[in-house]
Amino acid sequence: MLGIVIVSHSKQLALGVRELAAQMVQGQVPLAVAAGVDDPANPLGTDVMQVYEAIASVFSDDGVLVLMDLGSALMSAEMALEFLPPEQQEKVYLCAAPLVEGAIAATVAAAAGMNIQQVMAEANGALVAKATQLGLDAHPLPVVSSQPITNTEVATREIRLKVSNRLGLHARPSAQFVATASRFQSQIQVQNLTRNSEAVRGDSINQVATLGVRQGHELRITATGVDAQEALQALQALIINNFGEDDSIAELTAPPQEFVAPTQGELAGIAASPGVAIAPLFHYQSASVAITEYHIENVEIEWQRLQSAIQIAKQEIQTLLSHTSIQIGDAEAAIFDAHLLFLTDPVLLDAARHHIVEQHLNAEFAWQAVVDEVTNSYRRLEDAYLKERVDDVVDVGSRVLRILLGNAPTDLQLTEPSIIVATDLSPSDTAKLDPSKVMGICMTSGSATSHSAIIARTLGIPAVMGVDAQVLNLENGTLIALDGETGKAWVAPDVETLNILESKRQIWQKTQAEARKLAHKPAITRDGQHIKVFANIGSIADAQAAINHGAEGVGLLRTEFLYLERKNAPGEEEQLEVYQAIVKVLGNKPLIIRTLDIGGDKHLPYLSSGVTEANPFLGVRGIRFCLENPQLLKTQLRAILRASVGNNIKIMWPMIATLTELRAARAILVEVQRELRQAGISFDETMKVGMMIETPAAVAIADQLAKEVDFFSIGTNDLSQYVMAGDRTNPRVATLADALQPAVLRMIKQTVQAAQTANIWVGLCGEVAAETIVAPILLGLGVDELSVNPQAIAPLKQVISHMTITEAQAIASVALQQDSATSVRELVYPIG
Question: Left, alpha or beta for 528 (phi > 0: left; psi -120 to 50: alpha)?
Fold first, then answer.
């Protein structure tokens, strides 16, 4: 059976989606999660290796469908594919579907026996289906024809029931309905009698969602087939029991707003991004696009024009997404994932193609017609938050139109620090703002939940939305002030108002500076022990992100990124340039470079031996591969050594299992050092060399290995797999490969004890280190350094600063005595 991978910036979200989807199909479909970190301040983030491991854990020849939420999740998924061999890459599909509804639709479809293409089609339709469920349109999705019943004489049975759920058939009950319907052989159709909808297939999550079933709506359900009666009874039980939901709902009330009399020149608006701004205004107006309708003869050429424009738009959005992810953050970059989803929506593309092919309309007019249909649908929604997604639709629509018309993109050009005044500001334009030039944003539309407001908050640009349109009549250069906390703006404020606002601005700026400073302080326990918190990185951009998030160094540089997306291995000079660039970003902070770790489920076509391994995880991987390709290793070592001059660089060997391997790798290093000396090339003669502890064999002889290296770094991802004999690519046993298994924890403890005896330090760079609730156990076991993805650094430091080593040791002692990983998590959960 095909597998499904859920990639999300939020681990809680991903686990919740997986649990919901799994419940719908009773665990029939292999589901894996690659998700972010538990960070109360910024809980979003994705990691390439997590995605890769998740794909590998559910891989099947039937295919793997990868669903992503937003932002850099798409980039992480794309990069993860590069670690798979080509024959596996062809069977992995990245799906541009909404995460929750898409995952449920895909899981239900997979459980029903659909192939990968059919499953992906079901998932892709879920975004429009969700809008319809909220009462957007009667038939936003084409009605999929029902599958024929071979025996036409089989009677059709029906039932009519009212839905009592307070929220109607939202995502979860819809999924339960479809999952139940798909378990029967009979053809099941369902119709919303209250809305007089057409009957749709009961085994399609998207079709069911289009019915827009609300509380009190009456359904007509028919079943045709040998088990029709049983199917209807099962569906009836679901509905009568309210799909297992509590009928109560919490009342949401807004806090009362204190009334303050307006001062002269004051404009009331909506508080969207905190902070005070005082500067001359600058009017911003997006370029208007005039669309002319005309008929075309060659429909295929016109359709190709639109497809080409959409592809260019995708590339632009990907670039913007990357920029936003690096410069602003993953959470904000996630916004543009929705833009990419819009460009891949099959229903919208089909509608545009229909306008072109059937009506012979030009691409610009056809595209605008589709965009207008969607924006109008959103505007008719009752939910204010969903209504604001119109901004995103307009943003994407305008981008494609601009490309079709051959217009160059326009960027905001400011000659002096200013406050932007506009009717609206698209998310794309907001993401490109320079906070050093844009002091504030004042808009006549929008709200605090708009995507532009979200981006402004992260950029630290004060913003007020929904002010009176009279502000648009002011001349450029007029002095205005705004308070993004109270939602007020002032035109030509008087001296007293300026003094009050200036005082508030200084306090706000000081608070922000202190918060940034705190994130960069060392992690020190309450009893005074400094625990180093490093970052795992895989690019130069990652290094900058690590520094921005407060990393004290890099505990793991995955050098595989240098070897990806190319036809041959990188040369010495190219590697040297990259290592030096990373060192420059880090300053004098430590940089641990892991030598090339290829093999297992990571293959490079140009380095492949052509030999198929029955079990690549037990084959030629990591240091074994490099020892079989010594020239490749020597090239990398030369680059690392040359970069080490005057810098705090360390080398780390991957996948060491024997003393022979360690000594062989060390011999190659010594040879390279000798060659550099002979050539008069400088390097750090005292550079430290360590190794990964990733195999039970390494743990068993850790006392011997510790005498020959300067440090250990425990890679819990692989160590868990090998200790538990649980292949991460086999969904039936993949859950065994958990770093919190007591057996794995005891391996960590044994490694630490060997290191302490040899007087060397121990780090840990597995993904478990990013789970803040696990920090007490790891520190209690004696780990000296934790290396995590950049987004996890701040919350991890916070957790560390709230504990003592004595407390951590007590928790670790209890954890070692537990009987399962589940018990261990239950033990530490309250501490997080």
Answer: left
Determine how many CB atoms are found less than 10 A away from the CB of residue 192: 24
Scanning 554-688, the segments in alpha helix (DSSP H) are 572-586, 623-628, 630-643, 659-678
Following DSSP, what letter does each residue of 331-395 receive, concatenated? Answer: HHHHHHHHHHHHHT-HHHHHHHHHHHHTT-B-HHHHHHHHHHHHHHHHHT-S-HHHHTTHHHHHH
What is the CB-side half-sphere exposure of residue 148 using CA atoms within 13 A? Answer: 3
Q: DSSP character for 774?
A: G
Could you tell me whether strands 591-594 and 554-558 are parallel, antiparallel, or unpaired per DSSP bridges?
parallel
Other CB atoms closer than 10 Å to residue 659's CB: what's the count? 14
Element (H, E) at 601: none
3-state class of 763 per DSSP?
strand
- The answer to whether 203 and 178 are in contact (CB under 8 A) is yes
At which residue do the structure tokens 């924006």 appear?
375
Would you say 683 and 649 are in contact if contact means Cβ atoms under 8 Å apart?
no
The answer to whether 419 touches 442, Cβ cutoff 8 Å, is: yes
Q: Which 8-state DSSP code applies to residue 571?
A: -
Spatial CA neighbour of 103 closest among 90, 119, 84, 118: 119
750's CB contacts (< 8 A; 6+ apart) are: 699, 702
Helices 572-586/630-643 angle, 10° precision:
40
Q: Which residues pair with 162 in a beta bridge?
A: 218
- pLDDT, tens digit, for every residue of 755-807? 999 999 999 987 678 777 788 999 999 999 999 877 678 878 888 888 899 88
Q: Is 765 annotated as catalytic?
A: yes
Residues with Cβ < 8 Å from 308, sequence gap 6 or more? none
Mean pLDDT, rounded, for 236-253: 58
- Inter-residue contact 399 to 313 (CB < 8 Å): yes
534-591: pLDDT as tens digits: 998 888 888 888 898 899 999 999 888 788 767 788 999 999 999 999 999 999 899 9
Phi and psi for 430 in degrees, rounded to 5?
-65, -40
Query: Is the CB of residue 289 less than 8 Å from the CB of residue 451?
Result: no
What is the H or E stretch that residue 270 is in? Answer: strand 270-273
Nearest-5° angle of CA 169, CA 171, CA 175?
85
Is residue 779 within 8 A of residue 803, CB to CB? The reply is yes
Please tell me which residue in 95, 442, 626, 765 is annotated as part of the active site: 765
Q: Report d(CA 774, CA 714) in Å as an integer.
A: 15
Q: Write the DSSP symbol of residue 559.
A: G
Q: Are strands 649-653 and 689-693 parallel, antiparallel or unpaired?
A: parallel
Say what percent of the chain tops pLDDT 70.
81
Pick the catalytic residue: 451, 549, 603, 626?
451
Give the ranges where 193-282 is alpha helix by DSSP (H).
205-209, 228-240
Count of alpha carbons within 13 angstroms of residue 322, beta-carbon side = 12
Q: How far apart are CA 632 and CA 625, in angstroms?
A: 10
Side-chain half-sphere of 304: how many Cα atoms within 13 Å? Answer: 4
Single out the residue of 153, 146, 216, 205 nearest to residue 178, CA to CA: 205
| Three-state secondary structure call for residue 234 | helix
323 counts as catalytic: no
Question: β-strands 554-558, 711-714: how paired?
Answer: unpaired
- Check if the beta carbon of residue 46 is closer than 8 Å to that of residue 73: yes
How crowded is residue 538: how many other Cβ atoms within 10 Å of its Cβ? 21
* Tally: H helices and E strands in the chain: 32, 25
Residue type, 383: D
Please tell me the distance from the alpha carbon of residue 305 to that of residue 303, in angstroms, as a whole number: 5
Distant-in-sequence, close-in-space partners of 9: CB < 8 Å, separation ≥ 6: 35, 36, 43, 44, 45, 46, 69, 70, 71, 72, 73, 330, 331, 334
Query: Exposed, middle or buried by CB within 10 Å (0-12, 13-18, 19+), for 698?
Result: buried
Q: Is 196:218 a contact under the CB 8 Å cutoff? A: no
